[in-house]
């Protein structure tokens, strides 16, 4: 058994660092701004939207690794067990935040919410126009992940049923090519004619290019590919990850190249070349981070581990908490663009995430473990 295989069941500190990075990028990208920051800092902040893409790569890797490991060991997967795990990890705290948004209007960072059924069915990202339904709009990425959690195990089960699991690599490659080509088609057919016209594209780009599931598969597919490499090709994985730090540097260099391609974010280069490069760059970093020779793997930090644990709750509430800080501390005379307001927004977001963690997340995770333990005993 390889070192990397031995490392899989352990807590992977490298992934904690990356998850902490992802939520930090998302938070600062959604923050309106702080006065007197240099122009180059603003440019980096404007690139913070890639934090969502890092979350996609991480989710694709972690979920696929879990299912692929079971598939390799037993040639089957337990869809029921998988859905139980995902339900108790994602749904309870999500429903609490949705309920607060609908029941407590002051919690809303924008004027209007999409229909409740959109949130309950995880279809809010389909046709979402932020100028009309801008409140809790960042849940679009959670919708994509939930759709992935629903579809992916079913696809694996179908491949197993028809005994074509060895064809999965072609499916992944085909979908990756599809998501690139569909963006190219949308840009050429709908975006290009809008360039230079009065009003520009408005919200067309975010509604039909940035939010839809079929245009944002890059990160998830790269994560799945890494999981397949690690689980099914351990010898090849070990050869690659001997150069883990070089792999990490390569990922950073790819992201640097993507940075220059992705301005403007709704431009041709960003949509055709930038999105896949971002996914591949983060994929290199994820593969490096799970490798024992990587600096990210070796470095342990309670801070990043704690941020990683809270990242889901932080993601759900960070816009609303920031809005509340602006409302209440603004009435006290605190400038919205001050560093103090940024600090207060961070502190209260973390406090809110801690409350959700210990009142909602952890109790439901304990309940999940009891249910799964009971099922294991029955099966024995």
The topology string of helices and strands comes to HHHHHHHHHHHHHHHH
Oligomer: single chain
Strand content: under 5%
Q: Mean pLDDT, rounded to whole units?
A: 92
Helical content class: over 70%
Count of runs of 4 or more consecutive helical residues: 16
Shape call: globular
Give the radius of gyration: 21 Å
Any low-confidence stretches, pLDDT <50, length ≥5? Answer: 5-9
How many strands, which pairing sense, and closed or not: the largest β-sheet?
A: none
Structural class, please?
A: mainly alpha
N→C terminal distance: 27 Å
Q: How would you describe what is shown here?
A:
- The protein is mainly α and about 375 residues long.
- It has one domain.
- It has 16 helices and no strands.
- The longest helix is centred in the last third of the chain and has 41 residues, at about 340-380.
- The chain is globular.
């Amino acid at each position: 058994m390889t070192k990397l295989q031995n490392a899989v069941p352990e807590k992977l500190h490298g992934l904690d660092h990356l998850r902490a990075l992802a939520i930090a990028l998302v938070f600062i990208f959604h923050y309106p701004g702080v006065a007197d920051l240099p122009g180059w800092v603003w440019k980096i902040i404007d690139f913070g939207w890639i934090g969502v893409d890092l979350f996609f790569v991480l989710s694709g890797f972690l979920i696929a690794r879990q299912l692929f490991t079971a598939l390799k060991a037993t040639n089957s997967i337990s869809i029921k067990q998988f859905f139980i795990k995902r339900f108790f990890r994602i749904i309870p705290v999500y429903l609490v935040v949705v309920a607060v948004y609908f029941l407590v209007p002051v919690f809303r960072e924008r004027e209007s919410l999409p229909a409740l059924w959109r949130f309950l069915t995880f279809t809010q990202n389909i046709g979402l126009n932020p100028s009309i339904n801008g409140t809790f709009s960042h849940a679009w990425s959670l919708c994509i992940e939930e759709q992935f959690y629903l579809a992916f195990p079913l696809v694996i089960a179908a491949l197993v049923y028809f005994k074509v699991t060895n064809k999965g690599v072609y499916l992944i490659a085909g979908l990756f090519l599809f998501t690139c080509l569909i963006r190219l088609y949308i840009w050429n057919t709908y975006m290009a004619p809008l360039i230079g016209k009065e009003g520009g594209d408005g919200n067309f780009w975010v509604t039909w290019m940035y939010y839809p599931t079929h245009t944002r598969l890059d990160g998830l597919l790269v994560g799945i590919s890494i999981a397949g490499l690690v689980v099914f090709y351990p010898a090849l994985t070990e050869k690659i990850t001997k150069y883990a730090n070089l792999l990490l540097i390569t990922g950073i260099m790819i992201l640097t190249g993507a940075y220059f391609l992705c301005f403007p974010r709704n431009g041709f280069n960003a949509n055709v070349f930038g999105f896949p490069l971002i996914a591949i760059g983060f994929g290199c970093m994820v593969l490096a981070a799970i490798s024992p020779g990587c600096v990210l793997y070796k470095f342990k930090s309670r801070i990043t581990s704690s941020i990683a644990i809270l990242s889901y709750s932080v993601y759900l509430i960070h816009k609303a908490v920031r809005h509340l800080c602006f409302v209440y501390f603004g009435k006290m005379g605190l400038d919205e663009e001050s560093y103090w307001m940024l600090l207060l927004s961070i502190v209260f977001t973390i406090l809110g995430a801690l409350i959700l963690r210990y009142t909602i997340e952890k109790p439901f995770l304990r309940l999940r473990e009891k249910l799964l333990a009971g099922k294991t005993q029955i099966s024995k």
